[in-house]
Amino acid sequence: MPNTAVTCLPRRLAAACLALAALWSGGTLAATPEQQELKIGFIKLTDCAPLVVAYEKGYFEDEGLYVTLEAQANWKVVLDRVVDGSLDASHMLPGQPLAAAAGFGPPADLVGVAVMGVNTLAVTLGNEVWSALKPTLPLADGLPVHPITADHLKGVVDGVKAGGKQFAMGMVFPTSTHNYLLRYWLAAGGIHPGFYTATDSTGTTDAEVLLSVTPPPQMPATLGAGTIAGFSVGEPWNQQAGLKGIGVPVITAAEIWSRTPEKVLGLRRDFVDKNPETVKALVKAVIRAEQWLDADRGANRAELAKMLARPEYVGADVTVLSGPLRGQYQYEKGDVRATPEANVYFAAHAGYPFYGDAVWYLTQMRRWGQLPKAQSDAWYTDTAKKVYRADVYRAAAEELIAAGGADASLLPPADSAVAGASKFIDGIEFDAAQPNAYLARLAIGQQGGAK
Amino acid sequence: MSFASSASFCERIGLDWFAPLLRLIGGEHPARQLKAMAELCGVPLLAIALFLGVWQLIAGNVETSLGALPGPRAVAAEFGKLVAEHGAERDKAAAFAMREAKRNAERVARDPAFKPVQRAWTGKPTFFDQIVTSLVTVFTGFVLATLVAVPLGLLCGSSRVVQAALNPLIQVFKPVSPLAWLPIVTLLVSAAYQGNDGWLSKSFLVSAITVTLCSLWPTVINTALGVASVDRDLINVARVLRLSWPRRITRIVLPAALPLIFTGMRLSLGVGWMVLIAAEMLAQNPGLGKFVWDEFQNGSSQSLARIMVAVLVIGLVGFLLDRLMYTLQQLVSRGATAR
Q: What is the pTM of this model?
């Protein structure tokens, strides 16, 4: 509307004075982003929330960005479309840019500039499997003791195999957090999830449980159709399967790895190099969104559940989204437990891209044979630091702190590898500085120099 | 135009249920018109009512993992919500335009050299936006198909050699499902075309070309048939008059073959519409197909009802497209026979 600009001269003057006042009061006005119109992809999952909030709360607009959010069909599409430039940025699996840098899968040069969501996945088993598993579980006060380890599942898997059938489970992408955590859980219980080899890109060599790829939102329907016996996927799809009576969530991310950094905001490296101001603005908007998400001990989560329930975002029912988002998680029907450590976005540096976490993902790629060769400890650190651009995050956060938009405690000390001690379900300690020694401690899987 | 002639026009273009009403208003044999109305309107309305009744009955008794199967009332309610969502999205767009104008004004005040750009709203496409997208796509694909198919059909129909040469190819490609074409088209378009903005985005081209490839064949076959069955006498007259080849085509062959060409085009458009929805679902290209797939993925309690709204709208739009082509076909063949 061009005429409002002409007729409202007094208002324009007032606005100009305001802008000047802002300059005077010490607030630094950020430089204009090089590219202001962005198309950003996401997958229908609770950890797309930072993007949705940044859009709905106008944080992108505040930073001078005009963003179109677009739901994508699956993680393969996300990867392809970021690589070919159809998407400028996307909600991405950390394993995707890391695998590209490590040489697994099609060549690409991608980076992660912020973490989106900590502890947002779970493992769900079909009703039949659950009814076979449940009697073998130790109980406390009539409810199964958590975490439920895969040791108990081994008997069920063996039973299915003795009956001449295969035990198949779904995950969302070969380099997905879900693949690695499901494998970790199975292997910790002595169940072999299979190796990737030069000739086996499906990762089922030596497998006792066959893992295959299904897009996240289709997981409940695929389980319902009987194609798979269980799956590992981000929320709300475990909770959806549970509440709709299709399956039973048995273990959540935090119980496998105490702080699972689930997704990153991923971009092409050349885009980041060419548009530093755009990327800084983008990260600032995402940090502000993550701050909103965890503000006042989750006071905004009810509003978030309603926001994500809209059909253009996650689209599941509010009742399904509320549980995981508000920390009231239903495992078996009637077994609702408090999960305050799940679906964290901001607290305890949740959004910061710690390169040590990237090292952990790389160790898992090596462990399951996606990386055919053993690598030095230095290679792990270098590759991780190349992909996890903490410098970009830091620059955006510093600008935000300087403008008074965030507290200085937002940033961890420079060059921190990880956010703090991580706990894994099998009690094995992870040290980001010694990935090869760590690999040697894991019973199932390829170690250092093997194969 | 008198009521009687409007009535016969209605009959001709397939609105025969409307004709008795016009005749009745015109005062032509009231008793006969009322009987015709009962037959032409009453019976279908009764059948629809029966269908809705049976649907409501079944719906209440079928449980899916997303709740009970929605009945007609739930679907109607969901349609209302889609209309409301469309309005809400338009309001948001207007609010954005205001904010943007204000921001631009502030910016100009600060920096007079700044040239303001009014950006487009980046909200989600509503259900009605998706209908428009699908319609534009299907017509683009259909027009392309017609531009290729009619000349091809003309060649096939006028030369036995060409006919013999092309027939096997046509017979093989005709039954190929759109879903099989889609990956090939997707890869080819991605390789050949770099731009990705506005209407000429890759996804739009992929959908349109898939529609073209699948809806080509009925028009080719019918055009060839129409050309081959032009009255021999007319051809002979053309020979005697020593008409040039282009004039023979435009004066004799095309007019005579037009009714069949339009029959082919009508079939093509129908095929194109069906193909488009499937292509949009599979490729996640914007349009009604994507709407259906998104709702299937959402799996909320409203999803099934929203999918049913889409199914009904897809059917209704397909029906209207068919009526449109039927009307054109009737007008054309009347013109052809009157000559």
A: 0.83
